[in-house]
Known about the structure:
Layout: E1 3-10, H1 16-26, E2 30-38, E3 53-58, H2 64-74, E4 79-83, E5 87-89, H3 93-100, E6 105-115, E7 120-122, E8 132-134, E9 148-150, H4 152-157, E10 163-165, E11 173-177, H5 178-184, H6 198-208, E12 212-223, H7 227-230, H8 238-253, H9 264-271, H10 281-286
Parallel strand pairs: 1-2, 1-4, 2-3, 6-12
Antiparallel strand pairs: 4-11, 5-12, 6-7, 6-11, 8-9, 10-12
Amino acid sequence: MTKVSMLIPARNEQFLVKTVDDIFTKAAGDIEVIAVLDGSWGGYEGMRDRPNLKVIHHGAPLGMRACINHAASVAKGDYLAKTDAHCMFAEGFDEVLLKDIQDSQIVIPRRKRLDAENWAIQDVGKPDIDLHYLCCPFTNPDGFSMHGAIWKERDRKRLEILVDETMSFQGSFWLMSRKHWDWLGGMSEEGYGTFTQEPQEIGMKTWLGGGQVMVNKKTWYAHLHKGKKYGRGYHQDKSEIMRGHEYSARYWMNNQWGVPYHDMEWLVDKFAPVPTWPENWLEQWSKHEFNEMTK
Protein backbone atom coordinates (compact mmCIF):
# COMPACT_ATOMS: atom_id res chain seq x y z
CA MET A 1 0.00 0.00 0.00
CA THR A 2 1.18 3.52 -0.81
CA LYS A 3 2.36 5.35 2.30
CA VAL A 4 1.92 9.06 2.96
CA SER A 5 4.23 10.81 5.43
CA MET A 6 2.63 13.84 7.08
CA LEU A 7 5.26 16.40 8.10
CA ILE A 8 4.29 18.87 10.84
CA PRO A 9 6.69 21.68 11.84
CA ALA A 10 5.55 23.01 15.22
CA ARG A 11 6.61 25.55 17.81
CA ASN A 12 4.33 26.19 20.79
CA GLU A 13 1.29 24.96 18.87
CA GLN A 14 -1.74 24.60 21.14
CA PHE A 15 -3.71 22.54 18.57
CA LEU A 16 -0.93 20.14 17.60
CA VAL A 17 -2.43 17.14 19.42
CA LYS A 18 -5.85 17.73 17.85
CA THR A 19 -4.24 18.00 14.42
CA VAL A 20 -2.32 14.73 14.85
CA ASP A 21 -5.38 12.90 16.20
CA ASP A 22 -7.48 14.22 13.32
CA ILE A 23 -5.00 12.93 10.74
CA PHE A 24 -5.04 9.43 12.18
CA THR A 25 -8.82 9.50 12.48
CA LYS A 26 -9.53 10.78 8.97
CA ALA A 27 -6.81 9.13 6.85
CA ALA A 28 -8.03 6.09 4.93
CA GLY A 29 -4.69 4.70 3.77
CA ASP A 30 -1.24 3.94 5.14
CA ILE A 31 -0.12 7.05 7.01
CA GLU A 32 2.72 8.15 9.24
CA VAL A 33 3.02 11.45 11.08
CA ILE A 34 6.32 13.17 11.83
CA ALA A 35 5.97 16.13 14.19
CA VAL A 36 9.02 18.34 14.68
CA LEU A 37 8.97 20.36 17.91
CA ASP A 38 11.17 23.32 17.14
CA GLY A 39 12.94 24.41 20.30
CA SER A 40 10.01 23.83 22.65
CA TRP A 41 7.89 20.99 24.01
CA GLY A 42 4.84 23.28 23.88
CA GLY A 43 1.78 21.61 22.36
CA TYR A 44 3.05 18.08 22.97
CA GLU A 45 1.11 17.59 26.19
CA GLY A 46 -1.38 14.72 25.90
CA MET A 47 0.10 13.30 22.68
CA ARG A 48 -0.72 9.56 22.37
CA ASP A 49 2.04 7.09 21.61
CA ARG A 50 1.44 5.47 18.22
CA PRO A 51 3.62 3.08 16.21
CA ASN A 52 3.36 5.33 13.14
CA LEU A 53 3.99 8.61 14.95
CA LYS A 54 7.49 10.05 15.24
CA VAL A 55 8.21 13.12 17.35
CA ILE A 56 11.48 14.99 16.82
CA HIS A 57 12.60 17.67 19.24
CA HIS A 58 15.05 20.44 18.36
CA GLY A 59 16.74 21.68 21.53
CA ALA A 60 17.08 25.13 19.95
CA PRO A 61 14.70 26.55 17.34
CA LEU A 62 15.95 26.12 13.78
CA GLY A 63 12.93 27.41 11.86
CA MET A 64 10.19 25.98 9.70
CA ARG A 65 12.31 25.20 6.66
CA ALA A 66 14.80 23.17 8.70
CA CYS A 67 11.92 21.34 10.40
CA ILE A 68 10.37 20.33 7.09
CA ASN A 69 13.74 19.15 5.77
CA HIS A 70 14.43 17.15 8.95
CA ALA A 71 11.03 15.48 8.87
CA ALA A 72 11.40 14.64 5.17
CA SER A 73 14.84 13.12 5.77
CA VAL A 74 13.40 10.44 8.10
CA ALA A 75 10.06 9.98 6.31
CA LYS A 76 9.35 6.53 4.87
CA GLY A 77 6.44 7.51 2.64
CA ASP A 78 6.13 7.31 -1.11
CA TYR A 79 4.45 10.72 -0.79
CA LEU A 80 5.19 13.64 1.53
CA ALA A 81 2.52 16.00 2.82
CA LYS A 82 3.31 19.05 4.90
CA THR A 83 0.61 20.50 7.14
CA ASP A 84 0.44 23.26 9.69
CA ALA A 85 -0.15 22.14 13.27
CA HIS A 86 -3.66 23.65 13.38
CA CYS A 87 -5.61 21.86 10.65
CA MET A 88 -8.60 19.52 10.36
CA PHE A 89 -9.20 17.15 7.45
CA ALA A 90 -11.97 15.53 5.43
CA GLU A 91 -12.62 11.81 5.73
CA GLY A 92 -10.30 9.90 3.42
CA PHE A 93 -8.48 13.04 2.28
CA ASP A 94 -5.29 11.10 1.58
CA GLU A 95 -6.78 8.58 -0.82
CA VAL A 96 -8.67 11.27 -2.74
CA LEU A 97 -5.47 13.27 -3.25
CA LEU A 98 -3.42 10.23 -4.24
CA LYS A 99 -5.96 9.14 -6.84
CA ASP A 100 -5.36 12.19 -9.05
CA ILE A 101 -1.74 13.18 -8.36
CA GLN A 102 1.16 12.82 -10.79
CA ASP A 103 4.84 12.55 -9.88
CA SER A 104 5.71 16.06 -11.08
CA GLN A 105 2.85 17.79 -9.28
CA ILE A 106 2.18 19.52 -5.98
CA VAL A 107 -1.44 19.02 -4.93
CA ILE A 108 -3.43 21.03 -2.39
CA PRO A 109 -6.96 20.25 -1.18
CA ARG A 110 -9.73 22.82 -1.10
CA ARG A 111 -9.28 25.03 1.98
CA LYS A 112 -11.92 25.79 4.58
CA ARG A 113 -11.70 27.89 7.75
CA LEU A 114 -11.22 26.17 11.10
CA ASP A 115 -12.92 26.98 14.39
CA ALA A 116 -10.14 25.31 16.38
CA GLU A 117 -11.64 25.59 19.85
CA ASN A 118 -14.77 23.73 18.76
CA TRP A 119 -12.89 21.69 16.15
CA ALA A 120 -15.45 22.51 13.50
CA ILE A 121 -15.77 24.35 10.20
CA GLN A 122 -15.96 28.12 10.67
CA ASP A 123 -18.11 30.40 8.53
CA VAL A 124 -20.25 27.59 7.09
CA GLY A 125 -21.69 28.80 3.79
CA LYS A 126 -18.81 31.15 3.09
CA PRO A 127 -16.99 30.31 -0.20
CA ASP A 128 -14.16 27.80 0.09
CA ILE A 129 -10.67 28.81 -1.00
CA ASP A 130 -9.20 27.08 -4.04
CA LEU A 131 -7.02 29.23 -6.30
CA HIS A 132 -4.26 31.77 -5.66
CA TYR A 133 -2.18 34.09 -7.79
CA LEU A 134 1.28 35.55 -7.24
CA CYS A 135 1.10 39.31 -6.84
CA CYS A 136 3.41 41.50 -8.90
CA PRO A 137 6.28 42.46 -6.56
CA PHE A 138 6.96 45.93 -7.94
CA THR A 139 3.30 47.03 -7.72
CA ASN A 140 2.89 45.67 -4.19
CA PRO A 141 2.12 48.58 -1.81
CA ASP A 142 3.52 46.58 1.13
CA GLY A 143 7.02 46.38 -0.31
CA PHE A 144 8.92 44.43 -2.94
CA SER A 145 7.53 40.94 -2.40
CA MET A 146 5.61 38.27 -4.31
CA HIS A 147 2.81 37.05 -2.05
CA GLY A 148 0.26 34.40 -2.88
CA ALA A 149 -3.22 35.99 -2.85
CA ILE A 150 -6.69 34.45 -3.02
CA TRP A 151 -7.98 34.61 -6.60
CA LYS A 152 -11.71 35.08 -5.99
CA GLU A 153 -12.70 35.90 -9.56
CA ARG A 154 -10.94 32.85 -11.03
CA ASP A 155 -12.42 30.71 -8.23
CA ARG A 156 -15.96 31.72 -9.22
CA LYS A 157 -15.37 31.06 -12.93
CA ARG A 158 -13.81 27.62 -12.45
CA LEU A 159 -15.87 26.06 -9.65
CA GLU A 160 -16.86 23.07 -11.76
CA ILE A 161 -13.25 22.16 -12.60
CA LEU A 162 -12.61 19.72 -9.77
CA VAL A 163 -8.85 19.29 -10.26
CA ASP A 164 -7.49 22.63 -11.43
CA GLU A 165 -4.19 24.42 -11.94
CA THR A 166 -3.30 27.21 -9.54
CA MET A 167 -0.57 29.78 -9.93
CA SER A 168 0.25 29.67 -6.22
CA PHE A 169 -1.06 28.45 -2.85
CA GLN A 170 -1.02 29.31 0.84
CA GLY A 171 1.48 26.80 2.21
CA SER A 172 -0.52 25.43 5.16
CA PHE A 173 -0.87 22.10 3.34
CA TRP A 174 0.69 20.50 0.29
CA LEU A 175 1.34 16.96 -0.98
CA MET A 176 3.88 15.69 -3.49
CA SER A 177 5.67 12.48 -4.40
CA ARG A 178 8.95 11.67 -2.71
CA LYS A 179 10.41 11.62 -6.22
CA HIS A 180 9.37 15.24 -6.76
CA TRP A 181 10.63 16.35 -3.33
CA ASP A 182 14.03 14.84 -4.07
CA TRP A 183 14.07 16.56 -7.47
CA LEU A 184 13.26 19.91 -5.81
CA GLY A 185 16.16 19.38 -3.40
CA GLY A 186 14.18 20.17 -0.25
CA MET A 187 13.72 23.61 1.27
CA SER A 188 16.56 26.12 0.89
CA GLU A 189 17.52 28.52 3.67
CA GLU A 190 19.93 30.47 1.51
CA GLY A 191 18.41 33.92 1.04
CA TYR A 192 14.95 32.88 2.19
CA GLY A 193 15.89 32.67 5.86
CA THR A 194 14.31 30.15 8.21
CA PHE A 195 10.62 30.70 7.55
CA THR A 196 9.27 32.73 4.68
CA GLN A 197 8.21 32.08 1.04
CA GLU A 198 7.77 28.30 1.30
CA PRO A 199 5.04 27.99 -1.39
CA GLN A 200 6.85 30.47 -3.64
CA GLU A 201 10.02 28.38 -3.67
CA ILE A 202 8.54 24.93 -4.22
CA GLY A 203 5.70 26.24 -6.38
CA MET A 204 7.97 28.20 -8.71
CA LYS A 205 10.43 25.34 -9.03
CA THR A 206 7.54 23.04 -9.89
CA TRP A 207 5.98 25.32 -12.50
CA LEU A 208 9.23 26.49 -14.09
CA GLY A 209 10.64 22.97 -14.00
CA GLY A 210 7.85 21.59 -16.16
CA GLY A 211 5.50 20.37 -13.42
CA GLN A 212 2.15 21.60 -12.15
CA VAL A 213 0.62 22.97 -8.95
CA MET A 214 -2.92 21.63 -8.63
CA VAL A 215 -5.92 22.10 -6.36
CA ASN A 216 -8.10 19.04 -5.79
CA LYS A 217 -11.59 20.26 -4.92
CA LYS A 218 -12.88 16.74 -4.29
CA THR A 219 -11.56 16.89 -0.73
CA TRP A 220 -10.67 19.59 1.80
CA TYR A 221 -8.82 20.63 4.89
CA ALA A 222 -9.67 23.40 7.34
CA HIS A 223 -6.95 25.78 8.47
CA LEU A 224 -6.90 28.08 11.48
CA HIS A 225 -6.00 31.68 10.73
CA LYS A 226 -4.43 32.55 14.07
CA GLY A 227 -4.60 36.32 13.86
CA LYS A 228 -4.34 38.42 16.99
CA LYS A 229 -6.54 36.03 18.99
CA TYR A 230 -4.01 33.19 18.98
CA GLY A 231 -0.78 34.72 17.72
CA ARG A 232 2.12 32.63 16.46
CA GLY A 233 3.30 31.58 19.89
CA TYR A 234 6.86 32.67 19.17
CA HIS A 235 8.80 35.72 18.05
CA GLN A 236 9.51 36.35 14.39
CA ASP A 237 12.26 38.67 13.22
CA LYS A 238 10.41 41.06 10.92
CA SER A 239 13.62 42.18 9.24
CA GLU A 240 14.45 38.55 8.37
CA ILE A 241 10.96 38.08 6.93
CA MET A 242 11.30 41.21 4.81
CA ARG A 243 14.73 40.13 3.56
CA GLY A 244 13.34 36.71 2.66
CA HIS A 245 10.44 38.22 0.73
CA GLU A 246 12.72 40.55 -1.19
CA TYR A 247 15.24 37.81 -1.93
CA SER A 248 12.53 35.50 -3.26
CA ALA A 249 10.96 38.14 -5.49
CA ARG A 250 14.32 39.21 -6.95
CA TYR A 251 15.41 35.60 -7.43
CA TRP A 252 12.35 34.55 -9.42
CA MET A 253 11.77 37.81 -11.29
CA ASN A 254 15.40 37.69 -12.47
CA ASN A 255 15.12 34.01 -13.44
CA GLN A 256 18.12 33.13 -11.29
CA TRP A 257 17.26 29.46 -10.85
CA GLY A 258 19.81 27.44 -12.75
CA VAL A 259 17.64 24.70 -14.25
CA PRO A 260 14.27 26.10 -15.37
CA TYR A 261 12.27 24.70 -18.25
CA HIS A 262 10.16 27.88 -18.30
CA ASP A 263 10.67 31.45 -17.06
CA MET A 264 8.65 34.07 -15.20
CA GLU A 265 7.22 35.52 -18.42
CA TRP A 266 5.84 32.10 -19.34
CA LEU A 267 4.13 31.69 -15.96
CA VAL A 268 2.47 35.11 -16.00
CA ASP A 269 1.34 34.58 -19.60
CA LYS A 270 -0.07 31.16 -18.75
CA PHE A 271 -2.44 32.60 -16.14
CA ALA A 272 -2.97 36.05 -17.72
CA PRO A 273 -4.59 38.33 -16.99
CA VAL A 274 -3.21 38.11 -13.45
CA PRO A 275 -4.36 40.69 -10.87
CA THR A 276 -1.74 43.37 -10.01
CA TRP A 277 0.39 42.57 -13.10
CA PRO A 278 0.34 45.48 -15.61
CA GLU A 279 0.02 44.59 -19.30
CA ASN A 280 3.46 46.10 -19.90
CA TRP A 281 5.01 44.53 -16.79
CA LEU A 282 8.07 43.32 -18.71
CA GLU A 283 8.83 46.86 -19.86
CA GLN A 284 8.36 48.21 -16.35
CA TRP A 285 10.48 45.45 -14.86
CA SER A 286 13.30 46.08 -17.34
CA LYS A 287 13.75 49.52 -15.75
CA HIS A 288 13.24 48.54 -12.12
CA GLU A 289 16.03 48.99 -9.59
CA PHE A 290 15.82 45.33 -8.47
CA ASN A 291 16.24 44.00 -12.01
CA GLU A 292 19.77 42.59 -12.28
CA MET A 293 19.89 43.54 -15.98
CA THR A 294 19.69 47.25 -15.09
CA LYS A 295 22.99 47.11 -13.18
